[in-house]
Specification:
- The longest helix has 18 residues.
- A nine-stranded mixed sheet has the order 11-10-9-8-12-6-13-16-15. Strands 2-1-3-4-5 form a five-stranded mixed sheet, with helices on both faces.
- The chain is an alpha/beta fold.
- The chain has two domains: 139 residues, Cytidine Deaminase, domain 2 (3-Layer(aba) Sandwich), CATH 3.40.140; 213 residues, Dihydrofolate Reductase, subunit A, CATH 3.40.430.10.
- Helix 8 links the parallel strand 8 and strand 9.
- It is built from ten helices and 16 strands.
- The chain is elongated, with a radius of gyration of 23 Å.
- It binds NADP nicotinamide-adenine-dinucleotide phosphate.
- NADP nicotinamide-adenine-dinucleotide phosphate binds next to strand 6, strand 8, helix 8, strand 9 and helix 10.
Length: 364
């Protein structure tokens, strides 16, 4: 590889790193970083997108300019936008800056942009290089890309289990399977998500708080999916000072007279069936790029079957719960052959004290 190519990769990696600084805050927008070099190849500015409604990465980089960008080049991990949203189109700013070359890692999957930004740049005479470090850029924004393509939120399923693969005792007295250290790690994971989903039974049995304990502001939206609406009138999730909560119920099975148990500060929405895909779609429409399913075995199984789960995080604790009085992480998938089963790939292992955290991607 030539020195010139190494240098292009270096600047694109810098743009991707800058983009990653918006990891917990940009949703529903993508994570974007931009780097500007002058005509001699010296760094003259950089920026990243921090939050929806705030300037895009390109605009931040232009705001931070220390020298004229005329004749220079830009590195950006996502195609610059060409539509007016809460902020003006970035393409106009790039063109009027006099920049001559732009390295774009990937096209924007948002149909308002999707290739149109690149076309406008080319028509204005800029030399556009597409595809540098594309794999890294796809990975960085996989949640945003997934939502734009499928109209569903990118789903991560998290559960904790004993070494014999059990997620709790049937009598509900299994708080906690994992250590305090692993549970604090879960709080920090939650900060990466826009919403956290459980089913009605987990609310009844565990009464969880489901916050990042202040690591994300505002906290992720807490979502309860219920078929019955048989929810308690007292619950940690009804404390609206900590975080927002929405109860989504299946109107074909729920007893709507039970709605009166839910306080007014909690949002309520109905769907026409118990298909978890409906939750994923509602959350995607609300701009949730990435959602965490912290539900128990029955909803987890339904969520996997309906393709709502793209990644899995499993905590394994050195405890044995035994079979009779405990629960499997999943219900029945009704497989008849081993080749039909759910496959996990890209496994990452880490040790938290004497517990193991396994991250994996799900391939069906
Ligand atoms: N170890 C772990 O990581 C972990 C995590 C979460 C939960 N748990 C344990 O799991 C137990 C609860 O398990 P669970 O499976 O009943 O979990 P859940 O998270 O409560 O999910 C099941 C509930 O979701 C609602 N639901 C909506 N659509 C559904 C669908 N299509 N299929 C199934 N349910 C749907 C129903 O609520 P309604 O009944 O209100 O209609 C149903 O009872 C608790 O004991 C809890 O402690 C363990």
């Amino acid at each position: 590889m030539s020195n010139k190519n190494i240098s292009h990769i270096k600047w694109m990696k810098r743009a991707i790193f800058l983009a990653s600084l918006g990891k917990n805050t940009t949703s529903p927008n993508p994570k974007v970083g931009a780097v500007i070099l002058d005509k001699n190849g010296n760094l003259i500015s950089e920026g990243f997108h921090f939050k929806a409604g705030m300037p895009h990465a390109e605009a931040m980089a232009f705001n931070n300019l220390q020298k004229d960008a005329k004749g220079g080049s830009m590195y950006v991990n996502l195609e610059p936008c060409c539509h007016r949203g809460k902020t003006p189109p970035c393409v106009d700013q790039v063109i009027s800056s006099g920049i001559k070359k732009i390295y774009i890692s990937m096209q924007d999957p948002d149909e308002r942009v999707s290739g149109k930004g690149i076309k406008l740049l080319e028509e204005a005479g800029l030399k556009v290089h597409l595809g540098l470090c594309k794999k890294e850029s796809l990975d960085l924004n996989k949640d945003f890309i997934h939502r734009n393509i499928t109209r569903k939120s990118f789903g991560v399923l998290k559960w904790a289990m004993s070494i014999d693969g059990r997620v709790g005792l049937k009598n509900g007295k299994s708080k906690w399977i994992t250590s305090e250290e692993s549970r604090s790690l879960v709080h920090s994971f939650r900060a990466e998500f826009d919403a956290i989903i459980i089913g009605g039974n987990t609310l009844r049995k565990d009464d969880p708080i489901l916050t990042s304990r202040g690591l994300k502001k505002p906290e992720p939206l807490r979502v309860v999916f219920t078929k019955s609406l048989d929810l308690p009138s007292k619950s940690n999730l009804w404390n609206c000072n900590k975080a927002k909560t929405i109860v989504i119920y299946d109107s074909s099975t729920a007893d709507e007279s039970l709605l009166k148990r839910i306080p007014k500060c909690v949002e309520v929405a109905k769907v026409s069936s118990d298909n978890p895909e409906l939750i994923s779609k509602i959350l995607a429409d609300r701009g949730c790029n990435k959602v965490l399913w912290e539900c128990g075995p029955r909803l987890a199984t339904a969520a996997v079957k309906s393709n709502c789960i793209q990644e899995i995080i499993t905590f394994i604790a050195p405890k044995i719960l035994g079979g009779e009085n405990s629960m499997n992480p999943f219900g029945d998938f009704e497989y008849k052959e081993i080749h039909e089963t759910v496959k996990l790939t890209d496994l990452e292992f880490s040790l938290i004290g004497d517990e193991i955290c396994v991250k994996s991607e799900l391939k069906i």
